[in-house]
Amino acid sequence: MMLLQTRLAREPTGVCVPPPNMAAEAYTLPIERVVEAFWPQDGFCVFGGAGAWARECANSRIRKDISNFVTQEFGFVSEFFTAPSATPFTFRLPDGRAVTTRDHVYPLDDVYCLVNGWYDLDAEQLLHNFSFLEEASDRACAELEQLLPSFHSISMLDLTVESFADEKALQELMANDSNSAEVTEAIVHGMRVHAAAKCLLRGPARQPGAVQQSKDKSGGKGALCDVSNCASRSRLVEWTDEAPKSGCGHLLQEGLCAEANACACHTHAADCYVPIPLVMQQHPHTDGFCYFNGTAFYVSFPGTENMSEVILAMRGSDYKGLNTGPLVTYKFDGREISSYMDASHYLYDDLYGFSLGFLQGQGLRSDWMLNSSRWTQLSEQMCNNIQQEFNFSNHELVLSDWLDYNAVIAVMTACSAGMPAPGSSKQSVLDMAGWQSPSSCRPVSRRDFAKHHYVKCILGYRNSAMDMAYLNSRACLLEGNRIGHLSECPYSPEMTS
Is the separation of the CB atoms in 249 and 287 below 8 Å? Predict the structure, then answer.
């Protein structure tokens, strides 16, 4: 796997703390012997100094949750499959099996997965059923123990030497003038040594010196991170065989990445971490919502201009009717504003619309929406006003950061209303929002809301105009600084249900 190359990778967070100052000699000794000396610490953590890949694998194994490891690998590797140079190339094994890849950077992974039979397993089960993944790893390691006489003497140095030698050999095969190549038996053997090393990193299943109680001498579950990575790559291989190379951006793999920020699984993953103005300069005739389509549920192209459909889609099962929710009071920008929380998203959207001045009763007439060109021009004017006031720098306008900060805004909005934080909030989100309790937290600001909307501006004025239309159609500012909804307002879209 692409584990021994130097590369940029996020540092894992979790429970793995590698031993400090691991001696260089440890990399030349049998993995089994070194890991046994640190029993019961996870072998991947023992060799955590080899890279973030090892530490994240250790964390995933200890937590029995492979999602972080797979997402880390997937987000990095997906760029190789979608690059302009990602032309198909077929590798054929001596036994007749073959794989076609578009990864010209590190094709070893696809050959590795094919040799060890991991592309033949149920990818859905491997990614979402940890027990199934453990069993698959057990079987694979038991087979490798029988195939390789040198199994128990393999060292981390063997893994390193094999990786670089086989990587070089495969790159040379891809450099020929053909679009296919025959894989040698030597490379096949190297792929098995590579997998065996991962098996051994699990460490002994018993305390050193204890009587062996099972037939598992191989540390069978050690291969599970690589097996799961193969499951993830198999979907990339399938997608690149079928997907068009043009059109809107989209997810390469459904259900793997977090819905709130699916950048790691997106066709334009790399651009999620580049300032949006620079991305849009490189794609001057592309709608930003099209380019980043699917990175979050609210970044969808083309979307609908029927506001009643949008309003209904936002409602959850908790909606019972007009003014049936609790009455809350925001303390915002030196004012108090009240509203009935008839649905959970009202807490965010009501104050968001008010802060931007987009509610009915704040000067924005709903009948102007009848002229879409005028409405879009008005949105452009509003966007320019926002930037003139807040002067957002490019480094503040990065898509992945924007997606992540949306949850922080939700918590800070709850703070402004003296309400509990949303139940799904992670500790990292609470920390960013300065949340300790409803009375000890950081309230949301006009700048927070303005930046959220302004990103939609630079992704295309059609998108900011639709956001403005949604906020105006659903709510209004009534006397006494109360926010009303739908039929309480001068204009209300016809609701079909």
Answer: no
Which amino acid appears at position 211 of this protein?
A: V
| Residue keyed to tokens 């059923």 | 129
- The tokens of 372 are what? 């879409």
In one-letter notation, the amino acid at residue 156 is M
Burial class (CB in 10 A: 0-12, 13-18, 19+), 176: exposed
DSSP 352-396: HHHHHT-SBTTT--GGGGGSHHHHHHHHHHHHHHHHHHH---GGG
User: Is residue 356 a contact partner of residue 453, using CB atoms and an 8 Å limit?
Assistant: yes
**What is the value of pTM for the model shown?**
0.59
3-state helix, strand, coil in the chain (%, to 5): 55, 10, 40
DSSP 8-state symbol, 400: H
pLDDT in tens, 43-80: 899 998 888 888 888 888 888 888 777 766 665 566 66
CB distance 335 to 341 below 8 Å: no
SS3 of residue 136 by DSSP: helix
CA angle 150, 44, 93 (to 5 degrees): 50
CA separation for the pair 24, 33 (Å, rounded): 14
* Tokens of residue 441, six digits: 């937290």
For residue 40, is the peptide bond before it cis, meaning its omega torsion is within 30 degrees of 0? Answer: yes
Distance CA 344, CA 326 (A): 11
Condensed to tens digits (0 to 9), the pLDDT of residues 366-406 reads 999 988 889 999 999 999 999 999 999 999 999 999 999 99
- Give the pair of three-digit tokens for residue 194: 């590579």
**In terms of residues, how long is the chain?**
497
Distance (Å, whole) CA 282 – CA 280: 5
Please name the helix (run of DSSP H) or strand (run of DSSP E) that holds residue 332, with its range, or none: strand 327-332
Backbone angles phi, psi at 477, to 5 degrees: -100, 120
Report d(CA 142, CA 351) in Å as an integer.
59
Residue 188, C-beta contacts closer than 8 angstroms, at least 6 positions apart? 93, 94, 115
* List of E strands, 131-246: 180-182
